[in-house]
Amino acid sequence: ATGKREYQKKVMKVFDLMEKMNPPDGLYPIYVTTDTPSPEFGSKKISMGAMGDSFYEYMLKVWIQGGRKAKSWESKYRRMYDRAMDGVHAKLKKVSNKGGYTFVGEFNGVQVADKMDHLSCFLGGNLALGAYTHPDGMDSPNAQRDLKLGKALAYTCYQMYAHMNSGVAPEYVTFHGDRDFGVAGGNSYYILRPETAETLYILYTITGDP
């Protein structure tokens, strides 16, 4: 790193712009258009997977990297993160009908699809990290709520591997009716996604639970 704040300021302008857009549930659609006098959301699609995952991950990690100070300029990103996680609990969290697996679906503008990307598996570890660094302490109700969801998502992501004959997970799985971990033919490939390994490592480091 150069240590020059000018680079940091330029990058964080993107987050500041998104903060001003202020969606009511804290969840940001994955497309933004700048072809208008002021930026607008280009669709209603919301995802913790492809094209959405890193935005929510960095909300939290920018604040952590800044020293987790309550009154720092980074603290607004922690507030954005907490609002977004409230939205995840209220809008995207689902439980499969058959096996009772907890997953985060994808909002397509009308409803939440019973589909979970492997990329979304980052969220289990991120929720645990958010709980561990929560301003009100790890024993606070919201921290415990998020840690519980993080553990449940980690288990589902592990099962994405365990349910495959190959032992590796596809790009995404579906949870339709009496079938958990359905795989579409065009998405059965595996490209060394790291999110599940990241989540399991973070949870183990924080909880000590093997």
Overall helicity: 40-55%
The name of the CATH topology is Glycosyltransferase
Shape by Cα distribution: globular
- How many strand units? 9
Order of helices and strands: HEEHHEEEEEHHEEH
Mean pLDDT: 93
What is the overall number of helices? Answer: 6
Structure description:
It comes from Pseudictyota dubia. By secondary structure, the protein is an alpha+beta fold. The chain has a single domain, classed as Glycosyltransferase (Alpha/alpha barrel), CATH 1.50.10. It is built from six helices and nine strands. The strands form four sheets. It has a three-stranded antiparallel beta sheet, with no helix packed on it. Strands 1-2 form a two-stranded antiparallel ribbon. Strands 3-4 form a two-stranded antiparallel ribbon. The chain is globular and about 50 Å long.
Please tag this protein with its features:
Glycosyltransferase, two-stranded antiparallel ribbon, alpha+beta, 45% helix, 210 residues, Glycosyl_Hydrolase_47
